[in-house]
Amino acid sequence: MNQVSKIDFIKAEKLKEKPDPDTLQFGKNFTDYMFMMDFDGENGWVNPIIKPYEPITLSPASFVFHYGQAVFEGLKAYKTIDGRSVIFRPEKHIARLNASCKRLCIPPLDSELVLEALTTLVELEKDWIPEKEGTSLYIRPFVISTEPYLGVRPSHHYKFMIILSPVGAYYSDGQLNPVKIYVEDEYVRAVKGGVGHVKTPGNYAASILAQERANEVGYEQVLWLDGKENKYIEEVGSMNIFFKINGEIYTPKLNGSILPGVTRDSVIQIVHDWGIPLHEELISIDDLYETYQKGQLEEVFGTGTAATISPVGELKWEEHVMTINHFETGEFAKKLYETMTGFHYGKIEDKFGWIKEL
């Protein structure tokens, strides 16, 4: 793998008008610049460049269109209350991106170069980071296979890119609003030995049908069960899932088909720091329903980059409807949210070393 030390830069002739920070939607607006780097089998990763955001041209025969050899990440930059521009845990996201590359037979990226590219791009675009609390600059690094060839094997050519998008607050009214979750009992998200533990587009494409079915019956997200026995809880939507039972915290253990979420990891570290018992283990939907019937299921919440913490107010499993905490946000989920966002916006000292300041 070649070591590249210089990132080229092409200046935009004209900068875009920035969107109204009060009407930002997720993934609708993009900044003035993007990062791009190419890979070929002879030279490795070459030609790192920051250039104006623009369409790219690919052959119709490019691998990515036919065999889906692609990976991506999602992380955020924030403007703190004292005006600093920071990124939350970029090194952890870069490590996970390379883990995804390994599973999809994509050549590894130089972690230091990716961090340099990411921080340089965000520094250049820091005026795009919205300042209103709850808002952020979403960072999307991704790799696609670009070789024009229809044989099934790893591609010999790739593009690595980073694009940026200012996004509004997940909770527009500033309140954590519980969501209704449908427990999917027909389709599965992933199986051990597959690619459920990495971020690749096919995982998300395969989830859309179940998501649509849940929406049709009035539920916002899908809770996935395992692909072998269809009984063990895995993830909810594109988030990891946690349960507060009798004052202790439970989450499904990583098993090869669950994505190791960065927010999940952060929450686990916080809970341990607070001295609260936390269990990573197999959790069956039957056992969860039994704890609900006994009145022991106190809170349920998802964790992920988009929402940070997403409280769950209702679970529907077969004919059973579980209303969690009277469909109100629990105190524990609220405390976690305030702590995590406190790190994001500089309200709380970063004792874990998670914040990368530009």
Oligomeric form: single chain
Poorly predicted ranges: none
The sequence of SSEs as H and E is EEEHEEEHHEEEHEEEEHEHEEEHE
- Residue-averaged pLDDT: 94
Query: How helix-rich are the residues, as a percent range?
Result: 10-25%
What separation lies between the terminal Cα atoms? 27 Å
Largest sheet: 9 strands, mixed
Task: Give Rg in angstroms.
Answer: 21 Å
What shape does the CA trace take? globular
Short précis:
The protein is built from seven helices and 18 strands.
Could you explain the architecture of this structure?
The chain has 358 residues and is an alpha+beta fold. The protein is built from 7 helices and 18 strands. 24% of the residues lie in helices and 30% in strands. Strands 1, 2, 3, 4, 5, 6, 7, 8 and 18 form a 9-stranded mixed sheet that branches. Strands 9, 10, 11, 12, 13, 14, 15, 16 and 17 form a 9-stranded mixed sheet that branches. Helix 2 crosses helix 3. The mean pLDDT is 94.
Question: How are the SSEs ordered, and which strands pair?
Answer:
Elements: E1 8-9, E2 33-40, E3 44-52, H1 63-67, E4 70-72, E5 75-79, E6 85-88, H2 90-103, H3 111-124, E7 136-145, E8 157-167, E9 179-183, H4 201-216, E10 221-225, E11 233-236, E12 240-245, E13 248-252, H5 262-274, E14 278-281, H6 285-293, E15 297-304, E16 308-317, E17 320-323, H7 331-344, E18 355-357
